[in-house]
Amino acid sequence: MNDASIRELYRDRAHVVALLAAMYPAHIETDPAPPAPEVAMVVVIDTITGQLSWHVHRDDMDLFGWLPRRAREWDGHDAATRHERIHREIARLDLHEEGALFSAYLDGFADGCVDTAGAGSAGGPR
Predict the structure, then answer these.
(1) How do residues 79-99 score in pLDDT, each as one tens digit?
(2) Within 10 A of 18 (CB to CB), how many other CB atoms are there?
(3) Where are the alpha helices (DSSP H) in 35-115?
C-alpha cells in the first residue's frame, strides 16, 4: 500500500470521527507528545461509557473546524480501552431491530428527514 492510499484511509476514518463528534459532546486538544508532528491534534469524544479519542492528521482538520479547542483532558485510555468503550456504547444504544434508535431512524425515512437523494443504489455516499 502506498502513502497516498494510506492517507485516503486516514481521511476516510477522519470523516467517521467527525460524524461521531457531531453526535456526542466533543472537543479538540493538542497531544504534548504526539506520535508524529502531523498528528498532534486529538479529537476527544465524551460518551456515557467513557472518553473516545483519535489523533487527527493536520490535513484533516478542515473536518473539525467547528469543534471547540480545550486544554488537555484525555483520561489516559489506550486503543483497547477505546474499543471496549465503543462496544459498550453500541450495546447501551440498543440498536437491534426493535430498538428505539432503529425505529427513530426508520421514522426519519418515512417522514423525509433522512435525505437519500443522490445516494447510490447501495445507499453509498453521493
Answers:
(1) 999 999 999 988 887 766 665
(2) 19
(3) 79-93, 100-111
Residue 53: exposure state from Cβ atoms within 10 A (0-12, 13-18, ≥19): buried
The cell numbers describing 44, all together, are: 476527544
Contacts 24+ apart (CB under 8 A), 19-23: 20/45, 20/52, 21/45, 21/64, 21/67
Whether this model's pTM surpasses 0.90:
no
For residue 94, report the phi and psi dihedrals to the nearest 5 degrees.
55, 60
**Which residues 6+ apart lie within 8 Å of 101 measured at CB?**
93, 94, 95
The C-alpha cell of 17 is what?
470521527
